[in-house]
Design brief:
The protein has about 675 residues and is of the alpha+beta class. The protein contains 24 helices and 24 strands. Helix 1 packs antiparallel against helix 2, helix 3 runs antiparallel to helix 9 and helix 12 packs antiparallel against helix 13. The protein binds 2-(butylsulfanyl)adenosine.
């Protein structure tokens, strides 16, 4: 490679990387994006393609690291240079006053003490090490002395800068809490519930589980964030107060919960804030389990020091857990769209911090045996981030001996078909092809927003459709007549017209909506979109071979198998045929000319002379093929221009067909 080209590429890489760092900071830390997601994606793609050409540019601080890297075999231990302490707890105002008096006694000459009050986020503690401003390590707390090295996973979290800004110290170890916002948690749990996957009890468990992934691409897919609350080690020791510390962290580009942290000039103010925060708790977008109170003056902190594993200068003022005790009256088995059977605890209604609760999630039968829970048991339930509360434990002292066990069902509670639990899965599934419960959930999903979006056809009408036996498959929706609709309760002319109009309009939904609406296992909105971009029609998707599917980087064996299983099922084939016959005509957004290159993967390399790389890629995509940046076993063709280097060599080594620019153009034009 000519040195000039190399420098130009380095320069371009540097520019794009800086832009990405900036936009990442605006989006994740400031919550003020300056460009759209699509524009960000475009920049990232550009960066990735430069790094494919110049792999030495893919350094640990490159924004490319945010998407995840090679899976690990295990986590290495990470020793903490300074122990990660824990906090002593206070449970009420009196405990807080004791804390204040203890400190004053210890410091004797101090009359009044200024504190800083911070929400105690309920997540996972981390230590982030920055050397000369670059993130070099992320570690969990572990036993306080040694944690686990989770650097790869931490790099995928958008709110954690890979490079600090401004006047940062050369050596810095930041401490903070990684957590997930409630909304993201609820969306993820809902998705998992619908897919029949095991749900998480609370955002903390989900955060911990996400950080424990050996494959950082999985962590990258979880919307985690951070709040930084302190410094472990720093080469700069000029900071005088904890408030200054937090302000500095923020100046260096780290995320700090600045809106919620508050100074308090004495312990009365601390207590007032404790009460106030307890009320605010219900409205915050994340879970907090208390308030951390810290002595603001750094010299005083130093003087106070620590005893065993907790500092004398800070305390965690805990909030009461949102727990109550009630009776488990029965267990209802719910059958989802995929046939997943989930046990739901029906409870004697009880008020848990202002919310009436009458059911709780039991998750699955592994959880039932872990809790050793029986019908008739007194249970402790907790509201912890999810819409549906959890059962924390059984109060075994209250047992009378008459409690009944909760056996895993052998038959579907609705259609009585056999139930099967696959190896490695936690949830049994109904195997009945015509299970009405599955049909009901499938209909709800099919009509919902983001799917076929049939306005007016909600849960209530779907229940009636099934009760009146007007539908027995998804396609039957399109057979409905005005007369049929008039059998419904409270149906008028206008409503019937609107409904028929909405049903008819849904026939023209984009392909991605249709793919999503089919409710294929593991195919959520995102994958439906990926598939619709890749496959120009339902027809070509239904014939996709596993090699073609696996060639897409978002798709792994589980998803590919699920798609193939769905499309090879004769019932599903009949359903699709019916839907198409009824005039359902999903369209791909992409301008696709043909599908001669369907599923074929092309890599362009070298300095192309007859067309730009982008043009080549567009040509491939217009014929249903896909352009990739790197050569692998999944590559079908490498198109090599002059000066092609390592990718050409790799193609030859793997036996991938190499085309000249002319060969490629001939191929494209003869195929049209
Ligand atoms: S200060 C020596 N501040 O609570 C100071 N901790 O046992 C130690 N936590 O798991 C921690 N929010 O990760 C501090 N604003 C905050 C916090 C906070 C949450 C967590 C921390 C640790 C536990 C303390």
């Amino acid at each position: 490679m000519a040195p000039a080209l190399l420098t130009a590429a380095h320069q371009q890489h540097h520019n794009i990387a800086q832009q990405l760092h900036h936009h990442n900071y605006c989006y994740h830390t400031l919550d003020q994006p300056e460009i759209s997601d699509a524009e960000y994606d475009q920049l990232l793609q550009k960066l990735l393609s430069i790094e494919e050409q110049f792999p030495e540019l893919a350094t640990p601080d490159s924004p490319s690291q945010r998407v995840g890297s090679q899976p690990l075999d295990g986590f290495s231990p990470a020793a903490h240079a300074k122990p990660m302490l824990s906090l002593e707890n206070a449970f009420d105002a009196e405990d807080l006053r004791d804390f204040d008096s203890r400190i004053k006694r210890f410091l004797s000459r101090v009359e009044n003490l200024e504190y800083l009050c911070e929400p105690k986020l309920d997540g996972v503690a981390v230590a982030l090490t920055y050397q000369r401003g670059k993130l070099i390590r992320g570690a969990t707390r572990g036993d306080g002395t040694t944690g686990e090295d989770i650097t790869q996973n931490v790099r995928t979290i958008g709110a954690i800068p890979l490079q600090l800004q401004g006047d940062y110290p050369q050596q810095l170890e930041v401490r903070g809490e990684i957590y997930m916002e409630l909304e993201a948690f609820q969306v993820l749990n809902k998705q998992r519930r619908e897919e029949g996957e095991a749900t998480f009890a609370n955002p903390r468990n989900l955060t911990a589980g996400s950080l424990r992934q050996l494959d950082s691409k999985l962590t990258a897919a979880r919307p985690l964030t951070i709040s930084c609350y302190g410094i472990g080690i720093s080469s700069d020791r000029t900071l005088k107060t904890h408030k200054e510390t937090l302000e500095s962290l923020q100046r260096w580009g780290l995320k700090v919960n600045s809106d919620m942290n508050q100074e308090a000039s004495n312990i009365d103010r601390v207590i007032a804030r404790y009460i106030e925060l307890q009320e605010l708790r219900e409205r915050l977008p994340y879970e907090i389990d208390g308030m951390v109170v810290k002595v603001n003056d750094c010299n005083l902190q130093q003087e106070l020091g620590e005893k065993s594993r907790t500092p004398r200068w800070a305390i965690a003022a805990k909030f009461p857990a949102r727990q109550e005790q009630t009776l488990l009256e029965s267990v209802q088995l719910q059958v989802g769209r995929t046939g997943a059977i989930t046990p739901v605890a029906k409870l004697k209604p009880i008020n848990v911090s202002g919310v009436m609760v009458s059911s709780a999630s039991l998750h699955n039968w592994d959880e039932i045996s872990r809790l050793d829970i029986h019908i008739g048991d007194t249970v402790i339930i907790e509201r912890a981030g999810d819409v549906i509360p959890n059962i924390v434990r059984v109060v075994t002292d209250n047992r009378s001996g008459k409690e009944k066990s909760i056996p895993e069902p052998k038959h579907c509670p609705i259609c009585h078909s056999p139930v099967h639990r696959e190896e490695g899965e936690v949830i049994p599934r109904c195997q009945g092809v015509n299970c009405p419960a599955k049909l009901k959930e499938s209909l709800k999903h099919f009509c919902s927003r983001g799917a076929m979006d049939i306005e007016g056809l909600g849960d209530r009408l779907i229940d009636q459709l099934l009760r009146l036996e007007l539908v027995s498959s998804l396609a039957d929706i399109y057979h409905l007549t005005r007369e049929d609709l008039f059998q419904f309760d409270r149906m008028g002319d206008k409503l019937a017209d609107n409904l028929l109009q909405a049903i008819s309009a849904s026939k023209q939904r984009p392909l991605e909506n249709f793919i999503f609406a089919l409710g294929i296992r593991h195919i959520g909105k995102h994958l439906a979109k990926v598939l619709s971009h890749q496959f120009s029609s339902l027809e070509s998707l239904s014939h996709a071979r596993s090699e073609q599917l696996l060639a897409l980087h978002e798709i792994g064996p589980q998803v590919s198998e699920s798609l193939i299983r769905f499309f090879s099922d004769t019932n599903n084939q009949a359903l699709l045929e019916d839907l198409l016959k009824e005039g359902v005509n999903p369209k791909s957004d992409e301008q696709v000319v043909g599908d001669q290159l369907q599923g074929q993967v092309f890599v362009f390399t070298g300095s192309l002379e007859q067309f730009s790389r982008k043009e080549g890629e567009t040509l491939v995509e217009a014929q249903g093929g896909r352009a990739s940046g790197s050569v692998s076993k999944k590559t079908d063709y490498v198109v090599a221009g002059p000066g092609a280097g390592s990718k050409l060599a790799k193609a030859e080594q793997l036996g991938v067909t190499v085309l000249s620019e002319n060969d490629f153009l001939k191929m494209i034009y003869s195929e049209q």
